[in-house]
Amino acid sequence: MRAFAIRALTLLCTLLIGSSAIASAATDSVKVGVASIYPTYSLFFAAKELGYYQAANLDVDIQTFRGGPAALEALAAGAVDLCSILPTAAALAQQKGVKERIVALYAPPRPVGWYIMVPAASPIKSLADLNGKTIGVTQIGSLTDFWVQKVATGANIKVTSVPLGGGVEAGMRAKQVDAAILWPLGSYKGLVTGDLRAVSDLESALPPTISEGVAATQDMIDRRSDVLKRWLSATSKALDYMKTHEGWTEAFLKKYFDDSNADDKAIAMVYKNFIMKINTDGIMRPDWEKTSLESMATNAAMPKADQVFTQQFVPVKFR
Q1: Which stretches of the chain are DSSP H helices?
Q2: CB–CB of 198/125 below 8 Å?
Q3: Order of all β-strands in the sheet with 196-201
């Protein structure tokens, strides 16, 4: 009887210790900040829905902010551990004392799905026709503004960027501007319906770059590198699943965008042209880093690329 009691007590202690270990392993929280809706961010939500974060013993909270600057402010304040960020914004934040670096790229190296577009009835047929015209962008100094001016310079024309915030497409349709730069899905919807026409395809007009990377706080890089590695691995695993399961991914994207005007053809274009062109290992190449910081070339205090980016965590291992 005594021997049985001892064995029972031993078993109970083992179970309690095991349960405690499991609970402890599941307490690694990761807070991620993203700016609005974008194909890149769908990866993070997909990883959560597929259970990959949970399988990596991570409790991931994804917070959507009103824009990139707001997400960066949250990172600087310690409200999130990771956020989506433009390299130039990361560099400027570092100059202000924000301790963070970009650790991976989960977007195509080229601006896939980004077009300078006009209404189908517009008399503008080419980039040359845009000389002296206005083009709607989100904000002055934003990535869309930089891309527009880069394309204009390459075409030897002069254009005026007009900041329209989130109403870029609406502003173009209301004839507030002559043309606009539209994002993946917005551009694809216009191409599918035929009511918009592309004047410039930025994927072919611009070189590879890091349009938007995942930045981590320096504290996470230094003190929670294992947690960061697990988050990256789970995210890459989700991307791998998305790239190999077309039907699931298109259904997920349709739900993620929550856009009643996005038909199946436009969603399929996001999948084939954007998701499929993201490098699953989160790789960042030195020449992409250099190109991504070009818009700050006039700033003498611009940080070097190795201060803005770290290659410590790429290529991401996910198998």
Answers
A1: 2-25, 39-49, 52-55, 68-76, 87-95, 143-154, 168-173, 186-193, 202-205, 218-223, 225-244, 246-257, 264-273, 286-292, 305-308
A2: no
A3: 160-163, 134-137, 179-182, 115-119, 196-201
- 146 DSSP 8-state letter: H
- 95-109 pLDDT, tens per residue? 888 999 999 999 999
Domains of the chain: 9-109+210-308 (3.40.190.10), 115-205 (3.40.190.10)
Cβ neighbours for 45, distance < 8 A, ≥ 6 positions apart: 62, 256
The model's pLDDT over 22-44, given as tens digits with 9 standing for 90+, comes to 344 557 999 999 988 999 999 99
Residues in the chain, total: 319
Q: Is the CB of residue 62 less than 8 Å from the CB of residue 45?
A: yes
